[in-house]
Specification:
Distance between the termini: 42 Å
CATH topology of the largest domain: Cytochrome Bc1 Complex, Chain D, domain 2
CATH class of the largest domain: Mainly Alpha
Shape: globular
CATH superfamily of the largest domain: Cytochrome c-like domain
Bound molecules: heme C
Number of helices: 8
Order of helices and strands: HHHHHHHH
Helix content: 40-55%
Strand content: under 5%
Length: 179
Amino acid sequence: MISCAATSHSKPEIIVPARHEAPRHPPATVQRLLRPRSYKAVSQNSPGSAMLRAVSSASLLLIATSIAAHAGGDPVQGKHVFNRCMACHEAATDRDKVGPHLKGVVGRTAGTAESFLGHYSEAMKSAGAAGLVWDEANLTEYLKAPKLKVPGNKMAFGGLTNDDDIANVIAYLKADPKP
Ligand code: HEC
């Protein structure tokens, strides 16, 4: 296992995230490599190069592995992240605010909190009717880009950009926080 993951920009294809010894927050260089933006920059600069295509797939693999590696987020850190949701959501009780309560949301079908049924957007209710369940993967996508995951939904929140924040806040919601 190569643990000094991203010490070199010139050889990103050998980077293997060290899932056992890795620090919770990977070094900034790794985070830069993991961002889709840098993946785009690479492929745009040299569209035809097989070598760079290989690097690109390696980056995709890294992104996938990184999400998997973070699947078990930290609920304690997630509680802090949830401060950014609290203006609109309650997770420790079933009280609705501007948004539906998120108590027990992990595993819940989208748009089905009983007490909020009269307030959901049609978009959110249809997404649920079409089978969208808030498991970890779907929550990850939604919290990253709410408007992309459920187009037309009315959550006025741009999304979380940091993968750790997302994994941690999901872990917090999953832990069924008490008041
Ligand atoms: C500005 C208010 C606001 C903020 C901030 C906000 N949300 Fe929301 N959220 C909403 C509203 C309103 C909805 C309902 C959307 C709809 O019906 O289209 C919603 C819906 C959701 C849903 C779907 C719930 C369901 O029952 O289907 C989840 C999950 C969610 N928000 C999580 C979060 C998390 C986690 C955060 C913080 C990282 C957050 N939201 C921040 C307003 C907000």
